Amino acid sequence: MEARSASLPAADAPFAGRRIWFAGIGGAGLSAYALLAKAWGADVAGWDRAETPYLAYVRQAGIDVTVTPEPAAAPAGWETVVSSAYAARVPGTRRADFLAEIVSARRSIVVAGAHGKTTTTAMIAFCLDRLGYDPAYVIGGEVPQLGGNARAGSGWLVVEGDESDRTIAALRPEIAVVTNLDLDHHSTFASLAELEDLVEGWLAHVPRVVQGEGLAPLTTELSVPGEHNRRNAACALAALELAGVERERAVRALAEFRGVGRRFELRGEAGGVAVYDDYAHNAAKVEALLGAVRELEPRRALVVFQPHLFSRTRHVARELARALAGFDEVCVTDVYPAREEPVEGVTGKLVVDALCEVRPEVTPGWTPSLHDAAAFVARRARSGDIVVTVGAGDVDRVAQLVLERLAGGR
């Protein structure tokens, strides 16, 4: 796959003369920032604790990467930009502060919201690209049709923002998109009202704003299924119009958009069973995913769900159970901790127990390990079924394990 960010430099070099070390360079965010910094004139290198898919693009851009279990020190005289995951251990510039620099360097569109911001950001960047506007973009997921998650073009800069740690408040774009608001980050916000106050304060500094919750879903044909994607498309089109793109041209381009990695992504088929993978990690996202699944021809749908974060699981286990109950077969793995330390009594079993109460006629599977989950669904899947692996952690590994079991006779 082509790393377009390496081959298409920006029109000028706002970071020329800087030497920047990225701690956590393998993440979706910092890998993108590193690619832009390199294309915009900086000397760039970095460290991460493990290999990630994004490092392929980083290395293709000529950026040196150190992979070691413990953080590697920056070369003498280099500034350090630190991922949120390592901010407590590594001194340096916060990820959010560096992103604010990036946004200030170009005419920018920033997309925020609880649900759909990655896909909406990708839709905007895709349309600008296909219509010849040569965008720069920073997206929190891989977009196969764009060749990655970042590019340093000469036109509009399209950025996926992040309200999860309040850092979006520092961004000053020309256009802001808020897809929707929902209380999803319980360790950061005590209430939805607190989140709404943060976003309202941020938008007061933005000249032009798109509020997705006030838009009707797009009714023209898309290549990505689901009501949620029709709403994402409405947000993207509104932003494109504010950026000066004629609506009919944008609609035609958007019809060709085929999605973002890990957003109802078909991973393969074996034994007559189609296996998909999706990033959904809260109840609203799971419900939207189920809606997209049901738009396909009638088929049994089996789901492997991996809860994400102890704080979220503790607060929303029952809401997750209600969303998952719409699938025909459900199994749940243990919690993917990400940046959090374990919380006593909080495991994926909370979701399983809630499922037993919500849907007592069907027994869900408690499959703590990913291998347990793959075995569970592979034994139950039959020709014509759909299997979906779901969550924001490493549950995507289950898709390949399931395909291997199905191909090998389970």
Task: Describe the fold and architecture.
This protein is globular. Helix 10 links the parallel strand 14 (301-305) and strand 15. It is 35% helix and 19% strand. It contains 13 helices and 17 strands. The protein is an alpha/beta fold. Residues 1-11 have low confidence and may be disordered. The strands form 3 sheets. It has a 6-stranded mixed sheet, with helices on both faces. The chain has a 6-stranded mixed sheet with strand order 12-13-17-14-15-16, with helices on both faces. The chain folds into 3 domains: 16-93, NAD(P)-binding Rossmann-like Domain (Rossmann fold); 106-254, Mur-like, catalytic domain (UDP-N-acetylmuramoyl-L-alanine:D-glutamate ligase); 265-407, Mur ligase, C-terminal domain (Protein-Tyrosine Phosphatase, Chain A, Alpha-Beta Complex).
How do you describe this structure in short?
This protein has helices at residues 4-7, 28-39, 55-60, 95-104, 117-130, 192-203, 227-242, 247-254, 283-295, 310-324, 349-358, 370-380, 396-407; strands spanning 19-23, 43-48, 64-67, 79-82, 93-94, 108-112, 136-143, 148-151, 157-160, 175-178, 208-211, 265-270, 273-278, 301-305, 329-332, 365-366, 386-390. The protein is of the alpha/beta class and 410 residues long.
Q: Which helices and strands, and how do they pair?
A:
Blueprint (H helix, E strand, L loop, with lengths): L3 H4 L11 E5 L4 H12 L3 E6 L6 H6 L3 E4 L11 E4 L10 E2 H10 L3 E5 L4 H14 L5 E8 L4 E4 L5 E4 L14 E4 L13 H12 L4 E4 L15 H16 L4 H8 L10 E6 L2 E6 L4 H13 L5 E5 L4 H15 L4 E4 L16 H10 L6 E2 L3 H11 L5 E5 L5 H12 L3
Parallel strand pairs: 1-2, 1-4, 2-3, 4-5, 6-9, 6-10, 7-9, 10-11, 13-17, 14-15, 14-17, 15-16
Antiparallel strand pairs: 7-8, 12-13
